[in-house]
Design goal:
Strand order of the largest sheet: 3-2-1-4-5-11-10
Radius of gyration: 18 Å
Number of helices: 8
Bound molecules: S-adenosylmethionine
Order of helices and strands: HHHEHEHEEHHEEEEEHEE
CATH superfamily of the largest domain: Vaccinia Virus protein VP39
Structural class: alpha/beta
């Protein structure tokens, strides 16, 4: 089961702490710089629609796939046409080939790639599947944390947000690191207190991630015929890689 079917309950409250509106708008500007509306986009791991809803509103034809039904349930209903959102794992999407050669751009924001491709074989399979989905000059935009910039093997932090008098706190801590596969398993505890300090909700989940380095993605993608462009966004030092066919 997707860990977001548990932790997703407080996703929007906690996300706004690290991925505020300003950053999301800079990411939308980056998409616009790569391709103007009304291009056709597919957002993999669309989450709660952080990018898809504004991209739809500025005139893109958008499609989203998301494997967690809890995350999808946060999409404000009707904002994106019903038949353009899919509750499915990326690996099971387009099994009948209905979406072959359909998209100008495929996007994956905030470490979605780390959650769906755990090995180089997965990454190759991912790119092969994207090539099928993309139009002849299509592109992929991958946004992930840059593992060179922080100690992802031992990451531990707390973050709190206050909403309607409730304090929502995330305690996040890497519990396991596999150096051969560059994989981490992070234990997440979300604790919610009312305005008297009484705990009213407590949620545990585990998140598995494979930390991809820019050079690994670049090398494999170039071998498969992509040209790579790096982008940056002033508010953070994450990776924004554009892979062009
Ligand atoms: C860190 S969240 C990012 C959500 C959103 N893109 C954002 O930037 O706010 C990663 C999302 O990818 C989804 N995801 C992970 N693996 C997936 C897969 N194989 N297929 C579809 N969605 C997946 C998760 O359920 C989660 O909603």
């Amino acid at each position: 089961m997707s860990s977001y079917n548990i932790s997703g309950k407080y996703y929007n409250d906690l996300t706004s702490l690290v991925k505020g509106e300003e950053l999301t708008w800079l990411e939308i500007e980056l998409v616009k710089k790569i391709l103007e509306p009304p291009s056709t986009l597919l957002d993999i791991g669309a989450g709660t629609g952080r990018h898809l809803i504004p991209l739809f509103q500025i005139g893109y034809k958008v499609y989203g796939i998301e494997e967690s039904n809890l995350m999808l349930s946060f999409f404000e209903s009707g904002k994106i046409p019903f038949d353009q959102l899919f509750l499915v794992s990326f690996w099971d999407f387009n099994k009948r080939g209905n979406f072959n050669s359909s998209f100008d751009l495929i996007t994956l924001f905030w470490n979605t790639l780390n959650e769906l491709a755990f090995t180089k074989r997965d990454l190759r399979k991912f790119l092969i599947k994207c090539i099928k989905l993309l139009k002849p000059n299509g592109k992929i935009l991958i946004n992930s944390d840059n593992p060179n910039n922080f100690d992802y093997k031992h990451l531990k932090y707390n973050a709190s947000s206050v909403k309607d008098g409730k304090t929502i706190t995330l305690f996040s801590s890497v519990k396991r690191f596999n150096p051969f596969r560059n994989l981490t398993v992070t234990e997440e505890l979300i604790e919610v207190k009312d305005n008297n300090g009484k705990i009213i909700d407590k949620i545990y989940s585990n998140l598995k991630q494979r930390w991809w380095f820019k050079d690994e993605i670049t090398q494999l993608a170039e071998d498969m015929g992509f040209r790579i462009k790096g982008h940056s966004i002033p508010l953070n030092n994450e990776m924004y890689l554009e892979l062009c066919l």
